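Example (one chain per record):
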Amino acid sequence: MNVTANSQPAQGIPTALRLVASIFEREVNERLLNELIERREEVCEALGSDPLPGLDLDNRAEAIESLAIEYCRLFIGPRGHIPPVESVVLGEGRYWGPSTEAVVEFYKAAGIAWNEDAPLLPDHISMELDCLALLEERRQNGLARTFAREHLLRWLPALVEHITTNAALAFYPAWGKALKAILEQLYHEEA
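Predicted structure:
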């Protein structure tokens, strides 16, 4: 990914966040699909459902193509899509809106280097999940909670609603709903 810093090897929550980040970063490739198939039991338990039904897993090329078509239809376009980018989902009317600037400022304040040449915007869901994973690795729980509440949890529900309403396959709704539930559980408001 494109968010970097000196940190310990990923375990637990950071590993899960990075796996979900890879799901939403771009179309599923053969390596990722093979990993999901190998870890299917673990993934099903974590998600509470199987995200792979309806895919011909005996024909991996066809499954990858089906997931690529779904990814493009949901997130790239040409019509009825919503890119998984905070500024877009929040309706700021453009890429690199005020929320993007706020994310970049958060990265700087938290000592997270963001590569300006990265192919993804700093407020892309994958970048924000990488940031959260890094904060968890550093055991910066307060910063992680602040980032999740001020960013991901503000716009993720609308993205999940879009995915759930428009998906033809179970894959992206399962991952989106699971991510939302995990973030709400980890970073809920304390009474």
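Caption: Residues 8-187 form a domain with the TorD-like fold (CATH 1.10.3480.10).
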